[in-house]
Predict the 3D structure of the following.
Amino acid sequence: MTDTHTHLYLPEFDADREDVILRAIEAGIDKMVMPNVDIETAELLQAIRHDYPEHIFTAWGLHPTSVDYSWRENTTRLLQHLDEPGCVAVGEVGIDLYWDTTYRDQQMECLAMQLSEASTRRLPAIIHCRNGLDETLDVISQLHKPLPKMVFHSFTGSEEDAARILSAVPEVFFGINGVVTFKNARDLHAAIPTIGIDRIVLETDSPYLAPVPHRGKRNESAYITNVCSKVSELLGITTEETERMTDLNARKLFLL
Ligand SMILES: [Zn+2]
């Protein structure tokens, strides 16, 4: 299986990072994609990739919540990593207006620049979109280049949101994580069957968003099996089929 979104380089894993990676591999999660989020964590991300070249893949880009007055310079620096071995995507990039709307316009400009780079390099883009679907789709519709493949990571939206994304991006996948196991995620539960297994990839977004029964604790890649079970239940298919199909989708998306 593939965990298409995890942040193993964050301090939450400093004490037992190796154990976490080995537990994931033991549980059958043999591939993990780690998007960068800022300049500070770049070096550790590279080091982990270096230690597990068969299992760990990277993505580089400036996260929307890291966009500030120096976004242009920081984005240019991070995009230089796209040439490194093991890099499979531009990400994570997008719009996040949940905490702060100060840099809305800069977030949009930064997303446009990074999608353009993804298009030029024929790399997929990992999209982080929180309270910013209108802005994200605006930027996408104004990209005057062939659209890169995309994954809307941590998708928790409704049927309507999914339909808007599907009509805007021809080659799109939806990253489903622990939120799908939460009882109150009714909109997402309704959206999953309309998205269908052909468009779903699984992720943990660890250390965040641990699935039930680990909710509230630190998340890790091995817990992706709980996400897989819930998605299977919603689609009325076996966990083996969900595993097989989502893994195939992840390979298609990231060319793993
Ligand atoms: Zn993330």
Remarks:
- The chain has one domain: 2-254.
